[in-house]
Write a structure and sequence with these properties.
InterPro entries: AAA+_ATPase, ABC1_TM_dom, ABC1_TM_sf, ABC_transporter-like_ATP-bd, ABC_transporter-like_CS, P-loop_NTPase, Type_1_exporter. The protein is α/β, with parallel strands linked by helices. 65% of the residues lie in helices and 10% in strands. The chain has helices at 2-9, 13-45, 49-97, 106-151, 153-200, 202-207, 211-268, 272-317, 375-382, 405-411, 426-431, 439-448, 451-457, 475-489, 505-518, 531-536, 554-559, 563-574; strands spanning 335-342, 352-359, 364-369, 390-395, 398-399, 412-415, 493-497, 523-527, 539-544, 547-552. The strands form 2 sheets. A 6-stranded mixed β-sheet has the order 6-7-8-3-9-10. Strands 2-1-4-5 form a 4-stranded antiparallel β-sheet, with helices on one face. Helix 2 packs parallel to helix 4 and helix 5 packs parallel to helix 8 (272-317). It is elongated, with a radius of gyration of 35 Å. Bound molecules: adenosine-5'-triphosphate. Adenosine-5'-triphosphate (ATP) binds at residues 344, 351, 369, 371-377.
């Protein structure tokens, strides 16, 4: 717990240390106030009112001091909370910003969102609202134990020995509840995923009358979530009951010993002084148990907080890509892959198995291959979304792992399928490609990308807000803005995923024109889906199951009568089946 706070707070950890120190002092002071009750009660029970007055005054001073200190503790706790929300979020943000781009899957992005919002808020509230009663609930009983020892050894021993027993019970119950909670969170996430999937797939389900199967999956997931939710409720309430019950057992044991002592005093007619000692001890027993009951009540909250802290810690534990520090600049806009191997996870199969490739500066390379052959992975490695498992990716002769992030970013621009837009205006999103671009360069990118046609239709033109993630625009419009952003960046190497699935015919044409325009002026590496694109490439690379099957100019590959030629022949044979007007040059792969 503390180590996660240290990760979040950094230098501000001193605030937590100060808060902890004050909370311990406050717990000791509360114990001190209880200690003052002993002489007050002893004198009052003995009828020595005058002697009691000084102690009563000391007691009142102690109560006032602890009230004042409590305010300080609370303020210190709030300061820690504010530091968690400010520097903690900042530190987490810095960490997340250094993670590999490829790590940002929808699942991981949702994780970050959850941690930064609910998780951090929950953690920020811990010091002020949870830690203070818990720290006092541990420190104050320690003082009371010393007082009990002074009153009667047996009571002191029972109280002292009860602490490790209670700690074990709390740890055991929270371990059981934590395991059940983990199962519930897993089933909850799965049920939510199924429900979202079900909602998103409505058009398909209704068109194909396939609701039955999908509803069954949703129902099964919701049923599983219901079962694990019920188990969690039962076990967590049982844990809470068991914790309180354990404290009550300690209370019962202390009361029994006190009652036996009282019986001895009454039976044996010992001096009245002993009777007041028994009564004072009984009061101490009550003051010993009270804070422990409070701690038992917080066990569930602490367990929940533990989950949030673990989620934060897990984010800090994701390893960022090592930073490159070489000041060596790429010699040209060439790209080279040297015997590249890659797997997404250590225990996953290899997705790329020894790919070697040389892309000349200013040339155009078309990557083609069946779905899953590794085309997207290959261009992701060029943009250093991940690092290769073995081999090397070089830009202008420099290994991308040695390049500073800004140098690599300046070298490469991308037009991929999952283009993200920020919640600014269309102009903001385009200018992001190169904030210092001239107005001429900006307008050129707007024209060339087809954005001019979009803004002509919108009353606010370039100032139209795109909404969160570009939600107010169509997929095609988002794509054009992303193309404009890539064009304005003017990086020497352009990586393009010509994914036809997400492009309408007009946008396909925009991409095609962009490629034609840039051919020979920039190094273009394109995951090609259009035959026209493949035909104009200087080099075609055919991938199959993570290996380069064929590589060469369109003419060479055709002459080689390999997979590419086979594919073109199949296309030619099938052309008779195609709707009039579709030519090889206009078909899609
Ligand atoms: N983020 C990921 N985590 C784990 N495996 C992945 C991930 N992305 C892709 N893969 C796997 O890597 C392999 C290659 O995928 P890749 O997307 O590179 O192929 P592709 O040729 O681009 O396919 P497509 O044309 O369908 O986009 C596939 O088996 C895929 O399941």
């Amino acid at each position: 717990m503390l180590s996660t706070f240290a990760l979040l707070l950094g230098d501000d950890m001193r605030l937590l240390r100060r808060y902890g120190f004050l909370a311990v002092i406050y717990g000791l002071l509360c114990g001190g106030v209880i200690a003052l009750l002993v002489p007050v009660l002893t004198h009052l029970l003995a009828g020595q009112v005058d002697a009691a007055i000084a102690w009563v005054l000391a007691l009142l001073a102690g109560v006032a001091a602890s009230w004042l200190l409590r305010r300080h503790v609370e303020r210190a706790g709030v300061r820690v909370g504010v530091a968690v929300l400010q520097s903690g979020r900042h530190r987490l943000g810095e960490r997340v910003a250094r993670l590999p781009v490829g790590w940002f899957t929808p699942q991981n992005t949702a994780r970050v969102g959850h941690v930064v919002t609910d998780g951090m808020m929950g953690i920020a509230q811990l010091p002020a609202h949870v830690f203070t009663p818990v720290i006092c609930g541990v420190v104050t009983p320690l003082v009371v134990i010393a007082l009990l020892f002074a009153q009667r050894g047996s009571l002191g021993w029972i109280a002292l020995l009860s602490l490790p027993v209670l700690a074990s019970v709390f740890v055991l119950t929270s371990w059981i509840a934590r395991r059940t909670d983990a199962a519930f969170q897993r089933d909850f996430a799965e049920a939510s995923q199924r429900l979202v999937e079900f909602a998103q797939a409505q058009s398909v389900l209704r068109a194909f009358g396939g609701e039955g199967g999908s509803t069954r999956f949703v129902e099964q997931a919701v049923e599983r979530q219901g079962r694990s939710g019920l188990r969690l409720i039962v076990l967590s309430s049982l844990s809470a009951v068991f914790n309180v019950w354990a404290v009550q057992c300690v209370f019962a044991a202390l009361l029994m010993v006190s009652a036996a002592w009282l019986g001895d005093v009454l039976d044996m007619g010992v001096a009245a002084g002993d009777l007041s000692a028994v009564l004072v001890s009984m009061l101490l027993v009550i003051r010993f148990v009270e804070p422990l009951l409070e701690v038992a009540g917080y066990a569930e909250v602490l367990r929940g907080a533990g989950g949030q802290l673990r989620a934060v810690r897990a984010l800090f534990e994701v390893q960022p890509l090592p930073e490159g520090h070489s000041a060596k600049q790429p010699a040209d806009a060439g790209v080279e892959l040297r015997d590249v191997h890659f797997r997404y996870d250590a225990d996953a199969p290899e997705v790329l198995c020894g790919v070697s490739l040389h892309v000349k500066p200013g040339s155009m390379t078309a990557l083609i291959g069946a779905s899953g052959s590794g085309k997207t992975t290959l261009v992701r490695l060029m943009a250093r979304f991940f690092d290769v498992s073995a081999g090397a990716v070089l830009m202008g002769g420099v290994d991308v792992r040695d390049m500073r992030e800004e140098d690599l970013a300046a070298q490469v621009s991308q037009i991929f399928q999952d283009n993200f837009l920020f919640a600014g205006s269309i102009a903001d999103n385009i200018r992001m490609g190169r904030p210092d671009a001239s107005d001429d360069a900006f307008m050129q990118a707007v024209q060339q990308s087809g954005v001019a046609e979009i803004i002509g239709r919108l009353p606010q033109g370039l100032d139209t807000p795109v909404g969160e993630g570009g939600a107010r625009l169509s997929g095609g419009e988002r794509q054009r803005i992303a193309i404009a952003r890539a064009l304005i960046k003017d990086a020497p190497i352009l990586l393009v995923d010509e994914a036809t699935a997400s492009l309408d015919a007009a946008n396909q044409a925009v991409i095609a024109q962009t490629l034609v325009r840039l051919r020979g002026r920039r190094t273009v590496i394109v995951i090609a889906h259009q035959l026209s694109t493949v035909a104009m490439a200087d080099q075609i690379v055919v991938l199959e199951a993570g290996r380069v099957l064929e590589q060469g100019s369109p003419g060479q590959l055709l002459a080689g009568q390999g997979r590419y030629a086979e594919f073109l022949n199949q296309r030619a044979a099938a052309r008779g089946w195609r709707i009039a007007g579709a030519t090889a040059a206009g078909g899609s792969l």
